[in-house]
Design brief:
The chain is α/β, with parallel strands linked by helices. It has 3 domains: 161 residues, Adenylosuccinate Synthetase, subunit A, domain 1 (Adenylosuccinate Synthetase, Chain A, domain 1, 3-Layer(aba) Sandwich); 95 residues, Adenylosuccinate Synthetase, subunit A, domain 2, CATH 1.10.300; 158 residues, Alpha-Beta Complex (Adenylosuccinate Synthetase, Chain A, domain 3). The strands form 4 sheets. The chain has a 10-stranded mixed β-sheet, sandwiched between helices. The radius of gyration is 22 Å and the shape is globular. The model has no long low-confidence stretch (mean pLDDT 96). It binds inosinic acid (IMP). The site of inosinic acid has 21 residues, from helix 4.
């Protein structure tokens, strides 16, 4: 029988704790696949009391018996990849077998520089607050059909021809628009060839590996990076990333047909955060926001930037349920709310005096949304040791049930602490 195929997607603006959810679910999967984004992600996994942050590697990498795949929808920074692999080796960790798709696009040095230059050239509320990892410029080249793919790194002639065309365009942009120094062709070319020598043994037909593993009965887990509200189509454009983190992105980014997907699980943090610019209706610029940031350790895993914090927004959750077709929710960091007297959750927006329950598709309209809340009593005790739903205090169960009832989607997993074992599983 074919193995089960699950997609794990972020529901909010990223940093929901997808890494730990994938790490838990990976125990039952044979293959873990990243399908979009790049080293802009920061997926934190705590295993056996040790903390790991993965930017590019799939979060299943700590299981030596698994296959981990970097799909063609990912933009891959070889230096970030090697750094992560070397760091795991230095810690004496055995890792999963890794396959990198031939078609994954390569983040080149000029992409990272252009990302920073174009961000610096924006001012005021036109700034996006990118991670500076070259993500937008690399995807621009992919869709402009001048990108360098992983397969090009192992073919010196093709690489020379492609890089000649692309680097000439980039150097024009750097010198004529930004007044910067051009990149030396030879330096970039030699660097890319050296990457190719290390990447060659990892290259493969990733979609075929995934399909064959599913055929042989193994479960497949697709790990989204970033999240629904950062999706280039469905997020708060232009304050988004340049890829498709939504469930549909897994099909194009990893080469799997929609009819082969069994389940889509959305990861919802028990409150909400955003890093970078753009509207965030439930943001708390108050002591509560400060409390959530401190207790939740809400500082970017990739950039170290303090995250903007606020209450969980069920209008946004409803949107994610529809856009992704969510079958289940993984609710993370519920323990961060332990000490609060009251917990708020947004159930609708007031936009220009009109109450609405639907997430507006226009970013300008979202900027005018005032959140309307339902307030819950806090449970005021630690839930870190709870392992079954029944172990949770009644007020915490009420909060979880309200999320289920309002969204119409069951909460299948609850995170009560950072450790792998600090998880309540409910039929997942
Ligand atoms: P980029 O992906 O670096 O181009 O950044 C675009 C926007 O997405 C910025 O607001 C970033 O802060 C945000 N972003 C990118 N990756 C992540 C992530 O993994 N978690 C949270 N926000 C992210």
């Amino acid at each position: 029988m074919r193995g089960r195929t699950d997609i794990v997607v972020g529901v909010q603006w990223g940093d929901e704790g997808k890494g730990r959810v994938v790490d838990v679910l990976a125990a039952k999967a044979g293959v873990v696949v990243r399908y979009q984004g790049g080293a802009n992600a920061g997926h934190t996994v705590v295993a056996d009391g040790e903390k790991y942050v993965f930017h590019l590697l799939p979060s299943g990498i700590l299981y030596p018996d698994k296959l981990c795949v970097i799909g063609n929808g990912v933009v891959m920074d070889p230096e970030a990849l090697f750094d992560e692999l070397d760091a795991l080796a230095a810690r004496g960790k055995k890792t999963a077998r890794l396959v990198v798709s031939h078609g994954a696009h390569i983040v080149m040095p000029y992409h990272k520089l252009l990302d920073k230059l174009s961000e610096n050239a924006r001012s005021g509320d036109t700034k996006i607050g990118t991670t500076g990892r070259g993500i937008g410029p690399c995807y621009s080249d992919k869709y402009g059909r001048i990108g360098i793919r992983a397969e090009d790194l192992v073919n010196a002639d093709i690489l020379r021809a492609k890089l000649s065309l692309t680097l000439a365009l980039k150097n024009d942009m750097l010198t004529k628009i930004y007044g910067e120094k051009p990149f030396s062709f030879d330096e970039v070319y030699e660097k890319a060839l050296a990457w190719g020598r290390r990447i060659e043994p990892l290259l493969g037909d990733s979609f075929l590996e995934i399909d064959e593993a599913a055929e042989s009965g193994q479960n497949i887990l697709f790990e989204g990076a970033q999240a629904t509200l950062l999706d280039v189509d469905y997020g708060t454009y232009p304050f988004v990333t340049s890829s498709s983190p939504c469930a549909g992105g897994a099909c194009t980014g990893a080469g799997i047909g929609p009819s082969r997907i069994d389940r889509v699980i959305g990861v919802v943090k028990a409150y909400c955060t955003r890093v970078g610019e753009g509207p965030f209706p439930t943001e708390e610029r108050s002591e509560t926001g400060e409390f959530l940031r401190r207790k939740g350790g809400e500082f970017g895993a990739t950039t170290g930037r303090p995250r903007r914090c606020g209450w969980c927004d069920l209008v946004a959750v409803d949107y994610a349920v529809r856009v992704n077709g969510l079958d289940g929710i993984a609710l993370t960091k519920l323990d961060v709310l332990d000490d609060l007297d009251e917990i708020k959750i947004c159930t609708s927006y007031d936009i220009n005096g009109k109450v609405q329950k639907h997430f507006p598709s226009s970013c300008a309209e979202l900027s005018r949304a005032k959140p309307l809340y339902r307030t819950f009593k806090g449970w005021k005790r630690s839930i870190a040791d709870c392992r079954r739903f029944e172990d949770l205090p009644e007020a915490a169960r009420d909060y979880v049930r309200f999320i289920e009832d309002t969204s119409g989607v069951p909460v299948l997993l609850i995170g009560v602490g950072p450790g792998r074992e600090q998880t309540i599983l409910r039929g997942i």
